[in-house]
Amino acid sequence: LRCTLNGAELIGGSLAYISGLVTVPDGLKIQATELSERGRTPLLFARDGKLLGIIAVADAIKPDSAEAVRQLKNMGVQVVMLTGDNRRTAAAIGREAGVDEVMAELLPGDKEKAVRGLAARGKVAMVGDGINDAPALTRADIGIAMGAMGSDAAIEAADVVLMDDDPMKIAKAIKISRKCIRIVHENIVFSLGVKLLCLLLVALGFANMWMGIFADVGVMVLAVLNAIRALRVHNL
Hints:
The protein is of the alpha/beta class. It is 50% helix and 18% strand. It has nine helices and nine strands. Strand 3 and strand 4 form a beta hairpin.
């Protein structure tokens, strides 16, 4: 930030930005570094070339974020944090959340490029809530937006919207989708297997009308009953 208010020039921003415009004492630089290592983002402010002070801000991690990350990792999902915060702050938050990798100091376009790079490792699901996350949400194979506090741009770009902003629902959604796909595969294999067996018995002259009815209606009923299992998913 750089502006003029009531005839005074006001400057605010990161340590790197302020250092190029105003002389910053070594003690304040050390303090800013310590704040970054504790997961805070230091912002320095100056007026007419004179340093006024430093303010530390931080995004509070949701109480269940670390547990949500742990569940995802237990499911074989690699968790990567993309953020615009400085590297020290991002590293501290990443350690607290327990993520596998941290990519910091990213602009919206950088996040989109990062998602493209991660796509080389496999399928990518991007979770975000801000307008700066919209390009990455669009680029990812699956975009997940936090709907309650998310921006309209993020919700529009996402494929899935979590209306209660509960990060635990991410792991649950993956578990539900995996179970549904597994049931679909089971029904396909079972249905085709029974029908092929019935055709073989018909060709050999061992099949009768009741076997044909079972291969048609009976298999359909069993497939529906098997699909009902998708309605029940145990908590992780």
